[in-house]
């Protein structure tokens, strides 16, 4: 294995594992505010439910911090040439995330966890709002960093190859960042909603904490239905159109579209064959892809063969499958949450055991969908580390051998396995106690 592949594998592993926790806390942050708002209006069950989910949020936040710190260091240890060339740009938002968003979130999280009695209902509600805002602000700074790598703006390249920031305003208002941020936050809301609904379904199926379980389902299914729809349209649609406009070769690879054509159909199922440059066993809806991307049934869409193969993503099948896993699961989420929200009226959801089992068993799948979405974005940008500015092969730390990287990767895997056991055991302990036995924080 060459050093470049080892560096990519290590960063992919650490960031994929890390992202399991921020998507949970970002989604739960919004739902906790909803529950605290209901509690502020006199709903005691909602307030007790909020206390339960605040504990889950705190656990996810701690593991997210522990697994996020190594990512910052890997910019220097694994991607030194990238950091030397672009550190003056991406360092802006990474610093803002730490100085502004992280401290805002962590400071008010302490008050949220331990200050309810001292603060009183209104200030405790405000603490929940500030934690939610901090988590979503943190998400924007991170997405803005990634958006520069996808669609660099507000910069210039010096003669020595160093990329310098010319306009902080342009950097922070990158149109790619707006589209990606909306889609990412909505995706996190889907995760939070499915986790809350799944735990509520578990309690109902086991006949425990019934009033709180119903409150979980009431809040989570409505939020989940809206978020699942918004993940597809408008946020997913806007993000896809950004890819069509600025990364057409990526879009062609995502869709398994090899030959330039007009009136292109939407592929539902198919297997990319890189030897014949075709899709095997395709199931196609005629002309829909052209209409979705250009609002014209006969619109022309460029195929992969129109571009230099050196500009193709280096693992087209994996990119294709990641994208279709994300889209396929997203469609299923809409169906599940729409059914749950429909049956919520009149309390029929609470008696529909088949749907309660579906919600409970669906808990892992939003994590899979969000991971597949991240893989789509990162695999699609290849072979560029910064699109059209720096190739991935030019950005890694060439003085760190593959053996060193694989050794530390094994260390991360062992450490994260222990963290997983710790997280699962503590989460099961919180779930086992349940919301009704949660005493008020001091």
Model description:
- It is a single chain.
- By secondary structure, the protein is mostly helical.
- The chain has one domain (3-260, 302-437).
- 71% of the residues lie in helices and 7% in strands.
- The chain has 14 helices and eight strands.
- The strands form four sheets. A two-stranded antiparallel sheet has the order 1-2. The chain has a two-stranded antiparallel ribbon with strand order 3-6.
- A hairpin with a 4-residue loop joins strand 4 and strand 5 (278-285).
- The chain starts with a helix and ends in a 9-residue tail after the last helix.
- Residues 437-442 have low confidence and may be disordered.
Overview features:
mainly alpha; disordered C terminus; two-stranded antiparallel sheet; 442 residues
């Amino acid at each position: 294995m060459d050093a470049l592949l080892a560096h990519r594998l290590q960063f992919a592993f650490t960031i994929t594992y890390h992202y399991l926790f921020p998507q949970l806390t970002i989604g739960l942050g919004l739902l906790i505010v909803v529950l605290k708002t209901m509690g502020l209006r006199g709903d005691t069950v909602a307030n007790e439910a909020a206390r339960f989910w605040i504990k889950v949020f705190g656990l996810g936040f701690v593991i997210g911090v522990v697994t996020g710190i190594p990512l910052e260091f890997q910019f220097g240890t694994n991607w030194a040439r990238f950091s030397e060339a672009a550190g003056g740009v991406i360092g802006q938002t990474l610093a803002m995330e730490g100085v502004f968003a992280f401290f805002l979130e962590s400071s008010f999280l302490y008050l949220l966890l331990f200050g309810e009695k001292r603060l009183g209902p209104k200030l405790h509600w405000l603490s929940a709002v500030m934690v939610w805002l901090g988590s979503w602000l943190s998400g924007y700074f991170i997405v803005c960093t990634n958006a520069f790598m996808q669609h660099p703006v507000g910069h210039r390249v010096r003669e020595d190859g160093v990329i310098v920031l010319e306009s902080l305003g342009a950097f922070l208002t990158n149109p790619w960042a707006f589209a990606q941020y909306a889609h990412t936050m909505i995706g996190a809301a889907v995760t939070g909603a499915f986790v809350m609904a799944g735990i509520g379904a578990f309690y109902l199926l086991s006949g425990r904490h019934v009033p709180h379980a119903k409150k979980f389902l009431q809040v989570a299914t409505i939020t989940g239905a809206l978020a699942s729809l918004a993940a597809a349209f408008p946020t997913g649609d806007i993000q896809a159109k950004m890819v069509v406009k600025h990364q057409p070769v990526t879009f062609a690879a995502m869709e398994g579209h090899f030959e330039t054509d007009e009136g292109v159909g939407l592929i539902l199922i198919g297997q990319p064959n890189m030897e014949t440059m075709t899709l095997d066993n395709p199931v196609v809806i005629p002309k829909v892809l052209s209409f979705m991307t250009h609002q014209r049934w006969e619109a022309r869409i460029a195929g992969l063969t129109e571009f230099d193969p050196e500009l193709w993503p280096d693992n087209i099948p994996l990119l294709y499958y990641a994208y279709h896993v994300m889209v396929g699961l997203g469609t299923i989420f809409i169906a599940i949450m729409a059914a749950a929200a429909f049956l919520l009226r009149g309390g029929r959801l609470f008696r529909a055991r088949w749907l309660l089992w579906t919600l409970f068993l669906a808990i892992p799948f939003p994590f899979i969908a969000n991971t597949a979405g991240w893989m789509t974005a990162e695999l699609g940008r290849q072979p560029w580390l910064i699109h059209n500015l720096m190739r991935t092969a030019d950005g890694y730390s060439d003085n760190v051998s593959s053996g060193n990287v694989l050794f530390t990767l094994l260390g991360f895997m062992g450490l994260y396995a222990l963290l997983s056991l710790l997280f699962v055991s503590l989460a099961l302990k919180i779930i086992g106690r349940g919301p009704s036995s949660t005493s008020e924080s001091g």
